[in-house]
């Protein structure tokens, strides 16, 4: 590890930097200072800036996907600036504390977030919080301004909870020598430096984070013309090579994540796989060289490497995450009805008892929260033709968390319908505000209900 690059930057005048930011946020146009910063990430929209604004949104989306906060989590926004990241996280029901060394930037953040804002003027290298305060920390384009990164990382590690996680999305190789950075260093006195993915990851581990990973910043995404896509689409593994799904691949809806998760696996197999590709031709178009697929595959890997070098998104966990129902993975249950429903009169209440075994891999949290993420027993009232009459017929709550493999009893008290008839009650577990277990392939229980 080259201590000299990340660890030691000569004493940098942070006061000077804060003052420079104050001047930068001031406006010469007569508007109150900082008005353009209030519009982040839409600031300065004009002919050329849609790309910049969308880039900021992409940066936010990538970092938040990596952080994967649950609603209600408390996240530290490090180097928050005018606090647009905090604002957007709050809209996602994630609670934030916004920290910045520049008081003037936080004043703009205060205007943006209003009286509910939790703002702290403070230095990354000496965080003014007690140990274990935060579920997560997010840092967009701020770590590279900090002179002593190892110290800052130790501080972030200290203020995170035991299973806390931090994400850093930072400019990478070539940033400091970029003409814009050179101009800002000269005009404003700010510290600009390259964040090298491997070095930052190593420093995170030295700071005590057990699990460290990096993602490429793929903006804009690569584009394949029709002929190249046909090559890629037709790529087949040779006989004997199994294409197992990469570990942790999501079930659906996250193709980019799946692709990225597969990269080490792809790399290992590439040499066996590519020579077996058939020569590819685009119908009625240019003949593509048989080895074009090889070029294409390597180009894709190089692109990922360059994207990671140019802008690493580093994720650092204090320890591997336990999967629970706030961020579920496999949700599955075996449900057994202990007694059949009694014959009831209209409007009477009755109680059902269900034995539930957790056959998935996700811990079921039981404590009800308004924003969900806890598992409960849900009931739907159906007519005898299986059509739902009351979709949310009732809820029953577990008395404790249920780990994978464990069993627990849960009761639900329901009110019989007013009309005498034959009904069905469908019982299923629900991860509140997230999903019914049935929608993830788990089998619900159906039981007849007779109202006399
Ligand atoms: C490029 S801005 C990024 C702001 C915000 N994260 C965003 O994406 O818009 C970098 C911020 O880091 C802050 N900063 C620089 N050095 C810091 C330090 N040592 N401690 C806390 N904040 C710092 C600056 O004041 C500035 O607001």
Strand content: 15-25%
Main sheet characteristics: 7 strands, mixed
Radius of gyration: 27 Å
Mean pLDDT: 84
Helix-strand pattern:
HHHHEHEHEEHEHHEHHHHEEEEEEEEE
Number of helices: 13
Distance between the termini: 78 Å
Name the descriptors.
disordered N terminus, 452 residues, Immunoglobulin-like, 7-stranded mixed sheet, 5-stranded antiparallel sheet, 15 strands, 2 domains, alpha/beta, Rossmann fold, binds S-adenosylmethionine, elongated, 13 helices
What would you note in describing this structure?
Strand 4 (134-140), helix 7 and strand 5 (160-169) form a beta-alpha-beta unit. Residues 1-11, 245-265 and 267-288 have low confidence and may be disordered. The strands form 3 sheets. Strands 3-2-1-4-5-7-6 form a 7-stranded mixed sheet, with helices on both faces. It folds into 2 domains: 3-215, Rossmann fold (3-Layer(aba) Sandwich), CATH 3.40.50.150; 333-451, Immunoglobulins (Immunoglobulin-like), CATH 2.60.40. It has helices at 3-6, 14-25, 35-38, 50-67, 84-91, 103-113, 149-159, 179-188, 197-206, 226-234, 255-261, 263-273, 292-310, and strands spanning 74-78, 95-100, 119-121, 134-140, 160-169, 211-215, 313-317, 333-337, 349-358, 375-383, 388-397, 407-415, 421-431, 435-436, 445-451. The protein has 452 residues and is an alpha/beta fold. It is elongated and about 85 Å long. It contains 13 helices and 15 strands. The structure holds S-adenosylmethionine. S-adenosylmethionine is lined by residues 14, 21, 40, 79-81, 84-85, 100-102, 105, 123-125, 140-142, 145-146.
């Amino acid at each position: 590890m080259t201590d000299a690059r990340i660890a030691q930057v000569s004493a940098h005048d942070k006061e000077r930097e804060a003052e420079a930011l104050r001047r930068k946020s001031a406006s010469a146009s007569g508007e109150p200072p900082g008005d353009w910063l209030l519009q982040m990430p839409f600031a300065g929209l004009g002919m050329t800036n849609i790309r910049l604004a969308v880039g900021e949104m992409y940066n936010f989306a990538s970092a938040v996907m990596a952080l994967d906060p649950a609603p209600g989590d408390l996240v530290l926004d490090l180097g928050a600036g005018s606090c647009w990241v905090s604002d957007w996280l709050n809209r996602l029901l994630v609670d934030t504390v916004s920290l910045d060394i520049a008081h003037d930037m936080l004043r703009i953040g205060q205007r943006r977030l209003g009286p509910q804002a939790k703002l702290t003027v403070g230095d990354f290298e000496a965080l003014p919080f007690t140990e274990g305060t935060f579920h997560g920390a997010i840092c967009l384009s701020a770590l590279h301004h900090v002179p002593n990164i190892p110290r800052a990382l130790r501080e972030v590690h200290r203020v995170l909870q035991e299973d806390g996680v931090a994400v850093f999305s930072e400019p990478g190789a070539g940033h400091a020598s970029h003409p814009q950075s050179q101009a800002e260093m000269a005009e404003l006195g700010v510290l600009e430096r390259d964040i090298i993915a491997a070095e930052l990851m190593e420093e995170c581990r030295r700071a005590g984070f057990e699990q460290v990973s990096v993602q490429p910043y793929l903006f804009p995404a690569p584009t394949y013309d029709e002929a190249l896509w046909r090559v890629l689409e037709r790529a087949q593994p040779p006989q004997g090579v199994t294409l197992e799904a990469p570990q942790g691949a999501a079930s659906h809806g996250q193709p980019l994540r799946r692709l990225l998760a597969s990269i080490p696996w792809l790399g290992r197999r590439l040499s066996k796989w590519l020579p077996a590709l058939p020569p590819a031709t685009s119908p009625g178009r240019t003949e593509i060289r048989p080895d074009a697929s090889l070029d294409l595959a390597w180009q894709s890997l190089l692109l990922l490497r360059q994207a990671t070098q140019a802008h690493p998104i580093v994720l650092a966990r204090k320890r591997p995450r336990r999967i629970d129902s706030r961020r579920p993975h496999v949700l599955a249950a075996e449900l057994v009805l202990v007694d059949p429903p009694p014959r009831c009169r209209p409007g009477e209440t009755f109680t059902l008892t269900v034995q539930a075994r957790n056959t998935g891999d996700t811990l079921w949290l039981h404590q009800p929260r308004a924003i969900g993420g806890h598992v409960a027993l849900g009931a739907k009232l159906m007519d005898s033709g299986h059509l739902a009459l009351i979709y949310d017929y009732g809820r029953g709550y577990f008395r404790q968390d249920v780990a994978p493999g464990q069993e627990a009893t849960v009761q639900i008290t329901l009110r019989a319908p007013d009309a005498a008839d034959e009904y069905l009650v469908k019982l299923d577990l629900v991860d509140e505000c997230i999903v019914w277990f049935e929608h993830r392939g788990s089998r619900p229980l159906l039981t007849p209900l007779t109202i006399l």
